[in-house]
Specification:
Blueprint lengths: L24 E3 L20 H4 L6 E3 L3 E9 L9 E8 L7 E5 L7 H12 L2 H6 L1 E5 L15 H8 L8 H22 L8 H14 L5 E6 L1 H12 L4 E7 L8 H25 L9 H17 L2 E2 L5 E2 L1 H9 L8 H12 L4 H11 L11 H12 L6 H14 L11 H4 L21 E8 L5 H10 L3 E9 L10 H13 L1 E3 L3 E2 L1
Parallel strand pairs: 5-6, 5-7, 7-8, 8-11, 11-12, 12-14
Antiparallel strand pairs: 1-13, 2-3, 3-4, 4-6, 9-10
Keywords: Hydrolase, Signal
GO molecular function: hydrolase activity
Protein name: Alpha/beta hydrolase
């Protein structure tokens, strides 16, 4: 589940959506599962043992097969420590395997396939391919980033900071520094190697472990970033790639946050208009007046945090996280209506429940994943961020102007990474993937987390991209039950090699 940038508060999550039309195209090069050619190809010195390892798939989780694939912790030292990438796959299908990534960074591809493969992929796709999910390095089962106990994470989510004061920002930096130190202590040196470039190199070892000369891949949201980086690094090994809900790899951290701030502001307005047109809406008046009521509610929580029925404190960042969560998918708007109705009466319990879904906290108080910490660790390595106060103040003003409702609470991301134990290893840059086979990029016009303009930009950058546009609301477009135009575009591409025409609109 793709996530948005975080601020001095906590990270946010995602869902998916879709709606309708028809298309055309040419043919993609044939892509078969068990390649007859050498699946290793040219590899850097010291990496051949990883590419040639024997992987043992065992029955697991009922109807699936699971395996661990070894990769080097540090690609600069392949003879050093090894880590294991946990993978799971469906069985059947004669056309090989499609690797999938649901987003993040920090989402578990293992859980995604085990719990949601029937929802997020179609019968046609599963009938033709084995669908392979994996936990990227640093996530859940694959050398996970480990930082806080469940109780410590509960306490951290109850913290709030006076971001208008220098002292408040200094406290946020202090707490983030302490968090980073705990992550380094509990995770070990792999914390410095959970960047996307390293995960991209893992992806190629996974491809070889599946016996495929070329990578067939389906990525949503952050998964598009991983897929685009793969195409840039290994263009000659690109099979059939679909990138749905695209991130623009050329954008810096502030530009990404600005895009999302504008996207969520528009998503809130779309929700409000729908709410006012229906029955039981707790808001009233015009759309502008209703949005203002939501802003007033958020500011009141900032001034005086609420207490949920289980006794937990709900500060503004947790409250905003809960409010944003259902904006990823209009199917979840009724849940937001219930949460707002209760919150306007002084009860934040429903809003906290939404925030708990984001944070992967179950009703017993157990955090079932490490998404929040992995999200931070990956982004601190992937994105250099300004952390000097004047620059952060300037960026915060830009965000609040772009999104009067949410911008304030998406700002000051630099406080998190200022004293992170490891420095960034990547600079944002466009990708070209010269020589790659046709790549399908999908953008949704009303996507709040990965704005449509990013899909346009990525498609322009990639030398062989075909852009498919879904006119609708929600984050990402392809899933079982989605509109037939999008489903057919993706399924016909993977199964029949039919590349949708560039500029296709659904």
């Amino acid at each position: 589940m793709p996530r948005s940038r975080r601020s001095t508060g906590r990270a946010l999550i995602a869902g998916a959506a879709a709606l309708a039309a028809l298309l055309a195209g040419c043919s993609a090069p044939a892509s078969t599962g068990q390649a007859t050619a050498d699946v290793t190809g040219e590899v850097a010195e010291g990496l051949r043992p990883y590419y040639e390892q024997q992987v043992h798939w065992k029955r697991c989780e009922g109807r699936f097969e699971c395996a661990d694939i070894e990769v080097p912790m540090d690609y600069a030292d392949p003879g050093g420590k090894r880590i294991k990438i946990a993978a799971i796959r469906t069985t059947g299908g004669s056309q090989g395997s499609i690797l999938v990534n649901p987003g993040g960074p920090g989402a578990s591809g293992y859980d995604f396939v085990r719990d949601g493969v029937d929802v997020m992929t179609t019968d046609k796709l599963r009938g033709s391919y084995s669908i392979v999910g994996f936990d990227p390095r640093g996530i859940k089962r694959s050398a996970p980033v480990t930082c806080l106990t469940d109780k410590e994470q509960d306490a951290a989510r109850e913290e709030s900071y006076d971001i208008d004061s220098d002292q408040g920002i200094a406290q946020a930096v202090k707490d983030a520094t302490e968090l980073g130190a705990k992550c380094a202590e509990k995770t070990g040196p792999v914390l410095g190697h959970v960047d996307t470039l390293s995960a991209t190199k893992d992806l190629d070892i996974l491809r070889a472990a599946l016996g495929q000369a070329k990578l067939d891949y389906l990525g949503w949201s952050y998964g598009t970033f991983l897929g685009a980086q793969y195409a840039e690094l290994f263009p000659e090994r690109v099979g059939r790639l679909v990138l749905d809900g695209a991130l623009d790899p050329a954008l810096d951290s502030q530009a990404v946050t600005l895009g999302q701030a504008k996207g969520f502001e528009q998503a809130l307005r779309s929700y409000v208009e729908s709410c006012l047109a229906g029955s039981g809406c707790p808001l009233s008046g015009s759309a502008d007046e209703a949005v203002a009521q939501v802003r007033d509610l958020i500011r009141s929580v900032e001034a005086s945090p609420l207490t949920a029925q289980d006794g937990r404190l709900v500060p503004v960042n947790t409250f905003v996280s809960g409010l944003i969560t259902p904006l990823y998918d209009e199917a979840n708007w009724p849940a937001l209506t219930l949460a707002l109705t209760s919150a306007l009466q002084g009860d934040p319990t429903q809003m906290l429940w939404l925030a708990d879904q984001n944070a992967q906290r179950d009703p017993d108080g157990h955090y079932t994943g490490n998404t929040t910490f992995a999200f931070t660790a990956v982004n601190c390595l992937d994105y250099p961020m300004a952390s000097d106060l004047p620059t952060m103040r300037k960026e915060a003003a830009e965000l609040e102007q772009a999104s009067p409702t949410f911008g304030r609470y998406l700002a000051y991301g630099g406080t998190t990474c200022e004293n992170w134990p490891y420095k960034p290893v990547r600079k944002p840059a466009p990708v070209k993937a010269e020589g790659a086979a046709p790549i399908v990029v999908i953008g949704t016009t009303g996507d709040p987390a990965t704005p449509y303009a990013w899909a346009e930009s990525l498609a322009d950058q990639l030398s062989s991209a075909s852009l498919v546009t879904f006119k609708g609301e929600g984050h990402t477009a392809y899933r079982s039950g989605a509109n037939s135009c999008i489903k057919d575009a993706v399924d016909n591409y993977f199964v029949d090699g039919k590349v949708p025409a560039d500029g296709t609109k659904c």
